[in-house]
Specification:
alpha/beta; FAD/NAD(P)-binding domain; five-stranded parallel beta sheet; 20 helices; 27 strands; binds flavin-adenine dinucleotide
């Protein structure tokens, strides 16, 4: 492999010349205002990515129809939105990147967002038996179809008038256009349903109308599903034919994604997927069309370089890696691969609320305008206690501001619970973040002391100006009879190989760690069942849907018995007694694995309260959460100290 030279060759989409083969894929942000307008924060976000050296930025989806645009989603259904887009295009162009505007009608994807405003209906090609719940579904008539063709075309015209270099037609993931393409969601018997040609008709007509309105030289990329990732969904042979029809109708490139987002998990593949799960699908399409093909989905730089170099794919669409590190393209181009802060595909970025949203490895995501933090005034001597990711991240950011920081960790290595996560099968990539933080600490010259448990006495001896307590959390026990028996072990100990599981296993706890451990044991051929007090993945805050579905689907495929809404009442020497409905049953269990959450270790913080004038607590020691929360708290604290 000769570096990444293939990735940094120029390439064309229609008449549009791109400096390199890296494209930032469309990603909805939380930065739009309540009326669908661009904001300064959105400019900051895109400016950082454009400056980072990516060839083309595909914007987050812009919604083309007024009747399917909930608040806080970017709108392009009226000329009043053109000036905002124009400014965004300028911001991106100023940094040397090109810009393509993704055009979308939500359709069935509205159910993915979960929020459907009063009076808004969900337009679908057909009302099928899979459309469950009391949602306001509405089957589209001819008049709707004609209206939406025009909506797409007008939005494309606006994009062109605003100076955008291209548009991308969103026709994947279960949005309106995609539901026409898929046999699962399209059961129509008119000219828009049935054969592949008929199901492609809506997309083809939109494309033709866009070309009429915006000009035939204005590049249009179509983003298709290579697979719906579901029983009865579209096959790759059909996709290849759809791509050929769309090429014939004027598409300048085909981008391949997958999955119906509300039912499946392949669209945004989490850590549990192997690298590049959709690449083979994109390669098949590439063999059938003459226009460039863009592949996306968990593609690391070596794979990216290889498939471009071999001519199997023309461009690489990158999403989450550019959230994690906007400078990724520049760093690869300059031979600084080791400086990249790698996405760990944890999918915390998908769990978003308007104005919020975070990345587990990049606290500046969506807050780019606030970085870098200003120099400390005055610099202080700061002692950070706890070398988990919260403590490490805080130490780096404070040192960068000029504080004199020292970091103390009681165990023999940095990383805390993140090391346990990284020891889980499939999560090996998580270790990249601790490596990155370790290198950053080195670079900032932060002295790290390992193997020392910091006590109140030690703090008083050191006399720091401020103490940051980042002492994390430890696994919670279960307060039922028998829970302290020898055959009851913690999930963390099973993961770390400190506890063995023998015979039939019952896992208690149905959030991510419980699901992951049960799955891992089942994959080893062990007899395992799972008991959880709430629904699967539901105890407390909602789990991220893609990861949840990945795990739940595999548990179901492996036929792991899932006892949901079920209380574990007692643990005996050979069973777990459960309350199941109004009855009591015993599940045979030679080993019981507890995955019932964590509890904060805030002992030191309590001891120091009132003794030390300046004390901050961050991360899981405040309340057990996730990595994104831990590093965001670290950054917020580091900005104000
Ligand atoms: C198995 C597992 C899987 C997980 N998977 C995910 C995931 O996929 N996505 C996600 O977002 N989150 C995940 N998490 C949660 C995530 O790891 C934590 O939220 C995060 O690591 C918390 O970081 P922290 O620095 O606040 O605390 P910790 O990681 O607990 O670090 C605290 C550190 O402080 C040290 N310490 C404590 N007291 C002292 C003292 N007195 N002196 C010196 N040092 C001290 C401890 O040894 C520890 O190293 C997972 C957790 C586990 C256990
Ligand atoms: C936060 C987030 C928002 C996304 N929003 C969109 C979107 O609006 N339109 C779209 O076509 N894909 C969307 N995607 C999917 C990405 O474009 C991309 O196809 C996917 O993340 C796989 O690429 P990656 O593995 O490089 O992240 C989104 C992904 C993420 C993580």
């Amino acid at each position: 492999m000769q570096g990444f030279s293939a990735l940094f060759q120029p390439g064309n989409i229609g008449k549009l010349r791109l400096e390199n083969r890296l494209i930032m894929n469309a990603m909805g942000t939380v930065l739009v205002d309540g009326e669908g307008n661009v904001t300064e924060r959105m400019f900051d976000y895109y400016r950082a990515r454009a400056r980072g050296g990516v060839g083309l930025i595909v914007t987050q989806c812009a919604l083309v129809s007024a009747d399917a645009t909930p608040p806080f989603t970017w709108a392009m259904y009226d000329d009043k939105f053109t000036p905002g887009l124009s400014r965004l295009v300028e911001v991106i162009h100023e940094q040397g990147a090109k810009v393509s505007v993704q055009l979308m009608h939500y359709g069935l994807l509205l159910i993915f967002g979960g929020f459907i405003p009063e009076g808004m209906s969900i337009k679908v090609p057909s009302i099928t038996s899979w459309l469950v719940g009391d949602k306001p579904y509405e089957e589209m008539g001819e008049a709707d179809i004609e209206r939406y063709l025009e909506d797409f075309a007008q939005a494309a015209r606006r994009a062109k008038e605003a100076g955008a270099d291209a548009v991308e037609l969103h026709a994947c993931h279960g949005c309106l256009v995609s539901t026409f393409l898929s046999p699962v969601t399209n059961h129509r018997t008119d000219q828009y349903g049935g054969s592949v040609e008929n199901r492609t008709r809506f997309a083809r007509r939109i494309l033709e109308r866009i070309k009429q309105k915006a000009g035939k030289d204005f590049p249009v990329v179509v983003k298709l599903n290579g697979s719906d990732d579901i029983e009865g969904g579209i096959t790759i042979d059909e996709v290849v034919r759809q791509a050929a029809i769309l090429e014939e109708a004027g598409a300048d490139a085909i981008s391949i994604s997958s999955g119906l987002e509300f039912w499946t998990s392949l669209s945004i593949p989490c850590y549990a997927y192997p690298e590049g799960p959709m690449v083979p699908l994109a390669e098949k399409v590439k063999q059938a069309v003459r226009v460039p093909v863009i592949a996306a989905g968990k593609i690391g730089p070596e794979l990216a370089e290889q498939i471009i170099r071999n001519g199997k794919i023309d461009f690489i669409g990158m999403g989450r890696p550019l959230l994690a590190d906007p400078e990724l393209p520049n760093k690869l181009r300059e031979g600084r691969r080791e400086d990249v802060c790698w996405c760990v595909y944890c999918n915390n970025c998908i769990r978003v609320e308007p104005g919020q949203g975070s990345c587990s490895v990049n606290p500046s995501l969506y807050r780019e305008g606030k970085y870098p933090f200003p120099p400390a005034e005055p610099p202080k001597r700061v002692m950070v206690v706890g070398g988990g990711i919260a403590g490490m991240q805080a130490a780096v950011l404070m040192a960068q501001r000029g504080h004199q920081v020292s970091l103390y960790e009681k165990s023999a290595e940095l990383g805390g619970q993140w090391n346990i996560a990284a020891a889980q099968p499939g999560k090996e990539g998580y270790a990249a973040f601790t490596d990155y933080l370790r290198r950053s600490l080195d670079r900032c010259g932060v002295p790290v002391t390992l193997g020392i448990e910091v006590t109140k006495e030690r703090v008083l001896e050191m006399k720091p100006d401020a103490v940051v307590v980042a002492t994390g959390a430890v696994p919670r026990g279960l307060n039922i009879p028998g829970a302290s028996s020898n055959h009851v072990v913690q999930a963390n100990d099973v993961i770390m190989g400190k506890a063995e599981t023998k015979g039939s296993v019952v896992v208690i706890g149905g959030r991510f760690i419980g699901m992951e451990v049960a799955l891992w044991l089942a994959e080893q051929g062990k007899e395992v069942s799972l008991v959880t007090l709430a629904g699967l993945g539901e105890n407390g805050s909602k789990l991220e849907g893609m990861t949840y579905r990945t795990l739940a689907r595999r548990l179901i495929e492996l036929r792991v018995p899932l006892y949901v809404h079920t209380a574990a009442l007692e643990i005996t020497q050979s069973s777990v007694v459960i309350g199941w409905g109004a009855e009591v049953f015993s599940l045979p269990a030679a080993t019981v694995v507890l995955a019932v959450g964590a509890q904060s270790d805030n002992k030191l913080a309590q001891e120091l309260d009132g003794v030390i004038p300046e004390i901050y607590t961050i991360g899981d020691c405040v309340s057990p959460g996730d990595a994104a929360a831990a590093i965001y708290q670290a950054a917020r604290m580091a900005a104000k100290i």
